[in-house]
Amino acid sequence: MGIQLEGSVDNDVDSEVDGRVLRGQRNREAIVDAMFELYAAGNLRPTAAQIAEAAGISTRSVYHHFDDMESLVAEVSARAEDGVNATTSRPDADLELDEKVPAFVQHRITRWEKVHAVVRAARLGEYASPIVANALQVGRARLREDVELTFAPELAAAADPGLLLEGLDLLFGFEVWERLRLTQKLDPTTVATLLTPLVRSLF
Fold first, then answer.
1. Distance (Å, rounded) from C-alpha 100 to C-alpha 91?
2. Exposure b/e, 139-165, CB count within 10 A at least 16 = b
3. How many angstroms from the chain centroid is the CA of residue 203?
4. Same domain, 80 and 158
5. Does one domain contain both 114 and 174?
6. Averaged pLDDT, 4-12
7. 133 in the same domain as 58
8. 152 in a structural domain
9. Domain with 14 in it: what CATH number?
10. What span, in angstroms and rounded, lies between the C-alpha atoms of 67 and 83?
11. Distance CA 97, CA 151 (A)
12. Residues 118, 77 contacting (CB under 8 angstroms)
């Protein structure tokens, strides 16, 4: 009978722990990925059982990684935000206004095209969940700051900077895009054609 050295026992334990950690990370990623897939398919209020089936794990595992559905929705929203920020960037504030306005319009249209399902799903729980409401509020504040930074020269020169910012924040917001794209069913090019002169008229 062979003798098992103490160091090899420790290594086996470490490997087992590492394996559990990796499986846990994979399962958590699978849950978030499943939410994106379900949202994309039009299911904005999936149940834990539906998420588990899409992720290929047990329903119990969903609640092992997330205390409740609100926490999961908040994480999916944050992941979507990180993803779109990694692939799009706002126009330079030093651009001429006639170049900057259409560039920022396109920037926001691209953003909403990528994350609209996640935003719509989160809004369904906004008034019932403080966690989701806070995540959305943080996102809105960040987007408003993007407007302020991009149009800083124009805001500084405006007779009423606060009023100008409110108008810009409205026209670049999700609700306007949602109305034009999803309710009125305009294509992205038409949305840009409509929004650009509206934004330009504020200056």
1. 7
2. beeebbebbeebbeebbeeeeeeeebb
3. 29
4. yes
5. yes
6. 57
7. no
8. yes
9. 1.10.10
10. 24
11. 9
12. yes
Question: How is residue 11 written in tokens?
Answer: 């290594």
Confidence of residue 18 (pLDDT cuts 50, 70, 90): low
Virtual CA dihedral for 34, 84, 123, 43, nearest 10 degrees?
Answer: -30
Cα maximum dimension of the chain: 89
Q: What is the mean pLDDT of residues 54-72?
A: 90
- Please state the domain count of the chain: 2
For residues 146 and 87, state if they share a domain: yes
* Domain with 26 in it: 9-66
State the burial class of residue 31 (Cβ atoms within 10 Å of its Cβ: 0-12, 13-18, 19+): buried
Query: Are the CB atoms for 90 and 105 separated by under 8 Å?
Result: no
Q: What angle do CA 158, 92, 149 make, to 5 degrees?
A: 50
pLDDT at residue 9 greater than cutoff 60:
no
Distance CA 143, CA 137 (A): 10
